Amino acid sequence: MRCSSRSAALSALSAAMLAGCVPQAAPPPVRQPAPPPATPVVAAPPKPLAADWRDWPVTPGNWWYETAQVIARYSAPDGSTLLTLACDRPAARIILGRPAPSPATALTIRTTSVSRTVPVQSRAPAGASAMVMVEGSLPANDRLLDAMAFSRGSFTVEQAGQPPLVIPAWAEVGRVVQDCRQP
Q1: Where are the alpha helices (DSSP H) in the chain?
Q2: DSSP secondary-structure letter at 32?
Q3: What order of strands is seen across the sheet that includes strand 71-75?
Q4: pLDDT reading at 128 higher than 60
Q5: 168 — phi, psi (to 5°)?
Q6: Both ends of the chain: CA-CA distance in Å?
Q7: Fewer CB atoms inside 10 Å of the end CB: C or N, the chain?
Q8: What integer is the mean pLDDT of 36-60?
Q9: For residues 133, 139, 140 and 146, what is the CA-based torsion angle, rounded to 10 degrees?
Q10: What is the pLDDT of residues 16-28, one digit of tens each?
Q11: 3-state secondary structure of 3
């Protein structure tokens, strides 16, 4: 009977070994709590502007001067042009331009010493764009241009239906004016 007890022992050992080879059932996945619903991002309404334009924040951007064309561009951080001051030498005039979504009304320029409304014309840009340029023309010796160049810190360009531009009175403004006045 020794053989049979040996075979019984081997059978039991084989069964135990085979039991160890059977894959264990994976534990059930732990349920993660559902994330809270996303809170919609609502843009804060723009802060109302102060009564005095000199307290308004400067429009983000930078001036660029192009010597060959005698033009200064104030561009937004994304590179889009917000305002141009261009010299028309043959006519001895400076053209102020601002993009607008449609033909627009006059531009109101405010400096620390002068405030004036400048009539404009609309010009379609040379490309398929929804924006038109509204342009006002001033004689190169117009004192409004000097007031823009020497305004204390900034000046504004306002137009009905558009946000006001608060433009820093940097050297580019005076350079266009001076270069346009020279023969």
Answers
A1: 2-21, 143-149, 171-181
A2: P
A3: 62-66, 71-75, 81-88, 93-100, 132-139, 121-123
A4: no
A5: -70, 140
A6: 128
A7: C
A8: 76
A9: -90
A10: 565 555 566 667 6
A11: helix
